[in-house]
Amino acid sequence: MTLPDWKIMRQAGTVAAAAATVLLIAGCNQFAGIPKHLKPLSSKTVMLLEKKDMEKESPILVRIFKEEAELEVWKKQTATGKFALFKSYDICKWSGKLGPKIKEGDRQAPEGFYTITPARMNPNSSYHLAFNLGYPNQYDKAHGRTGSHLMVHGACSSRGCYSMNDDQIEEIYALARLAFQGGQRSFQVQAYPFRMTPENLAVNRDSRHLEFWRMLKEGNDHFVVTGQQPKVDVCSKRYVFNAVPQDGVKFSPSAECPQMSVPDSIQLAVAARQRRDEAKTERIVAKLEARENRKGPLRGLFGGTAVASAEPAKQSTPTSFVVASEPPKKQTPKSAQTAAPSAAPAPTYTASVTPPPKQPAEKKKEPAKDESDVANAYALETEQDAGADGFIETLMNNIW
After folding, report:
1. Domain 38-289+341-399 adopts which CATH fold?
2. 161 has catalytic annotation
3. β-pairing, 60-65 with 187-192?
4. Which member of 92, 156, 161, 235 is catalytic?
5. What is the model's pTM?
6. What is the pLDDT of residues 15-34, one digit of tens each?
7. Secondary structure in 3-state letters for 89-119
8. CA 21, CA 2: separation in Å to the nearest integer?
């Protein structure tokens, strides 16, 4: 006895729907049963690597920007052999404020240059997955800083760490694991307070950490102009980059820097970049102060204290930046040093504008942008003067 055609069709449809459901479940759980620290990259990520001419096992480098709450993964391109931006991730949370970590319990996320080896990867983290930054490093120890277990991890929870969401840390962890498998013995993490632009340095010119941040900018500039991971050492209690000591002398974090040299091509490129950025920073500072001086007398109209002076306001003259290629100067004896600064005494600006409020201790950003919207990071480092003018306008509007 044969079934009516409509029943046959209904049964066939049921079987097809069940099969589709099985396939869908299998697709959604393609990594089911695989330990989280061993999960392969998604097909979408692999396609992005191919599009950017990067191998899965090619070396990586990580850059962190606190104020922007962004973590970047850079990878070496096959054709050029230089690092290029692979992907930018929104940091779910970081704790503390702008500035380096000083002591255990201050809940500050570190700033500086850190080296990650396979031994610092933690597949059994209580925060999904993690890697230890290795704080305190040689620079931190030379300044007597304390702390431990400072991580980049998942779970979107931070008490001195940089926290990602679980999907993000799985992908970052996989990229690091594959780079180690490809022969990379360690990768560098560059942790900055903000992007090292003239605009940001101008706004933060009154910070007690300014000289420390200028030193970090030297490392940033070495990376940007070469496209290679900078060689980082510590002497005279400061970072030095791509430096080679003479006569086989070794660098010592607390001892005076020995005679050393930087390859000419790098030295010239970094010096040119610093001169350009220094000039731009000074122009921005001058604009900020000029506009503040013009608007100062109007404060009384809005309930503030009017600025009254028989003399015209003086313009401050910012002290020039120290060029990265110059060897560190001989340290001032401890008896003549001021307390606490992270590096050599910082040039100061006479400033009449209070920088805008910093971000709260814990930051949470909007969902990450699509990777197709992430501009090449070299472009992020080369703003034009017109952009600076727009920045000034926005800043002053916010202040007033």
Report:
1. L,D-transpeptidase catalytic domain-like (2.40.440)
2. yes
3. parallel
4. 161
5. 0.71
6. 555 555 544 454 555 667 89
7. EECCEECCCCCCCCCCCCCCCCCEEEEECHH
8. 28
